[in-house]
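Annual report, structural modelling task.

Input specification for the nickel (II) ion complex:
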Amino acid sequence: MALLKIARMGNPVLLQMAEPVTNPGAPAIRRLVDDMIETMLDAPGIGLAAPQVHRPLRLFVFHLPSERTGQPNIPPSVVINPHFTPVGDATMPRIEGCLSLPGLRAAVPRWVRIHYTGVDCDGNEVGGEVDGLHANVVQHEYDHLDGILYPMRVTDFATFGFNEELSRLPPATEQDA
Ligand code: NI
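The model returned the following structure:
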């Protein structure tokens, strides 16, 4: 296990279209996933995509502690070669941060409910229909695989700023991912 260096906004790797993972069970992928989970928990964050650790591959890790969601704990998990589709057409602004833009957050329009799919390192199907923070983190991490950082989706720049300054606004619904 090892902590990985996190690329910050401006690094070209964050703008690349990531490549599909051809062998999710490969030892190198399992090691990368383990290291990404360790790096995410250390940061701390609730999600981390492979391009953020300089590996332009289509996979991300996330976790959803029950105290954040009021729902059963989702332990650190990987989603490899993900796809998602919106369920319905409702969107809402979500307050997001990103480990590649430390100290900043903004309101980002996101689908309220999505259905997503992917596999884990054993080839098991993962995903399902989700909403709330779960839907939010999947959309944020998926964007990283297409070279999209959340500021590219901000529509109300009055919500974009440093955490300490924005703490005067209502509490954030998101944390760094
Ligand atoms: Ni991010």
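Residues 82 and 118 are 4 Å apart (CA to CA).
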